[in-house]
């Protein structure tokens, strides 16, 4: 199984990803409606480029988690406990970020200022609390 490139788990019963840390060749990781609460150890996946987290109601991003600089696409849907302000710390080289139905975001600026490679941003169903966020147009790296 060490050659496995994609891991897609629905209703995964464990709270962490420890049992997968030896899957060094993973390029795509997906957890859907699982009991996962942390992604601690994600930095060990050196080939990982895509992470999809969908409807994991207890998942949080922890300051103790080390960054994975290889991830280029991050998709988070209905994971309302995740502090999106930690995304740049954990995944600094994101090019495509999708945040769907993740509650509220105070402002976009912390994401935009700290994700220098971000080209594609989708915030469907996520409420942005600031009144005017048209400044996103000043970030030339964002294409979409």
Descriptive terms for the model:
single chain; 144 residues; mainly beta; 6-stranded parallel beta sheet; two-stranded parallel sheet; 2 helices; 8 strands; globular
Structural write-up:
7% of the residues lie in helices and 22% in strands. It has 144 residues and is mainly β. A six-stranded parallel β-sheet has the order 1-2-3-4-5-7, with no helix packed on it. A two-stranded parallel sheet has the order 6-8. The longest helix is centred in the last third of the chain and has 6 residues, at 109-114. The radius of gyration is 15 Å and the shape is globular. The N and C termini lie far apart (37 Å).
Describe what is shown at a glance.
With 144 residues, this protein is mainly beta. Helix content is 7%, strand content 22%.
Give the total of beta strands: 8
In the predicted model, the low-confidence regions spanning at least 5 consecutive residues are: none
Helicity, as a percent range: under 10%
Largest sheet: spatial strand order: 1-2-3-4-5-7
Oligomer: single chain
Nearest-integer average pLDDT: 92
Largest sheet: 6 strands, parallel
Number of helices: 2
Proportion in β-strands: 15-25%
**Overall geometry:** globular
Structural class call reads: mainly beta
The N- and C-terminal alpha carbons lie at a distance of 37 Å
Q: Could you state the order of secondary-structure elements as H and E?
A: EEEEHEEHEE
Q: How large, in whole angstroms, is the Cα Rg?
A: 15 Å
